[in-house]
Structure formats: C-alpha cells, structure tokens
Design brief:
Elements (H helix, E strand, L loop, with lengths): L1 H35 L10 H17 L1 H20 L6 H25 L10
Length: 125
C-alpha cells in the first residue's frame, strides 16, 4: 500500500510541475501558435460560424465517401490481380509486401499499448 501512496505522490508532483510549466509558457505558446496559423481563423470566431464549419466538414467528408469506396474496390481488384499472378512476382515485390504487413502489425501493437495507457502488461497503478 505504501508503494501506491508513493506513486500517487509522484504523480501529483508531476501534475503540479506540468501545471506550473503550462502557466508560465502557455500564453506565449498560444500567441505564437495563433499568429503562425492566423490564415486559418475565420473572422469573427463565433459559435454559429464554428457550427457552420463543423457541418461543412462533416458533409464534405460524407460527400467524399463514394470516391473513397470506388478507390477501395480498385485497390482490392489490383491486389486480387497480383495474387492471381503471384508466380510472376519478383522477390523485391514480395519483400515490400512483407515489410508493409510488418508495419501494419507494429502499428496495431503500438495502438494496443497506447490504448492500455502505455503499459506493456495492461496492469497500471
């Protein structure tokens, strides 16, 4: 139980340190960030304008679904064609495919670790 109290005190100390850092540097960071990206800001920044932009983004993405759907099926047909002609594949092509599969697996593992709160065993205090 003492270890849990120690961890809690350590976590509390780190949270206080992060709060002090944010209080000291947060305003300057925000000002710099907004100055650098002012061309993205809609004037006036009202709630109504934010809701309108949110709807525009949603429906724009919704409108892009048919093209994405078509592109997906083209890619799948291409993969089927490659599989059908796999006997004529070169070693380099097989190597690229294997590396791609390994990369997908690694991203999946990383996502699992992040989802568990950056713990390797799933046990966190």
């Amino acid at each position: 139980m003492a270890a849990l109290g120690s961890k809690l005190a350590q976590l509390q100390s780190k949270a206080c340190e992060a709060t002090r850092f944010a209080a000291k540097h947060g305003c300057a960071y925000h000002k710099t960030l907004m100055e650098k990206n002012k061309h993205y800001v809609v004037d006036p920044p009202t709630i109504q304008k934010c809701q309108e932009l949110s709807k525009q983004l949603f429906y724009t993405r919704l409108a892009s679904l048919p093209a994405r759907y078509e592109s997906f099926w083209k890619e799948l047909d291409s993969a089927k064609l490659l599989w059908k002609n796999r006997s004529s594949l070169k070693v380099e092509d097989a190597g690229v495919a294997a590396l791609f599969g390994i990369e997908l697996y690694a991203w999946s593992c990383l996502g699992e670790i992040v989802g568990r709160g950056f713990t390797l065993t799933g046990y966190h205090v």
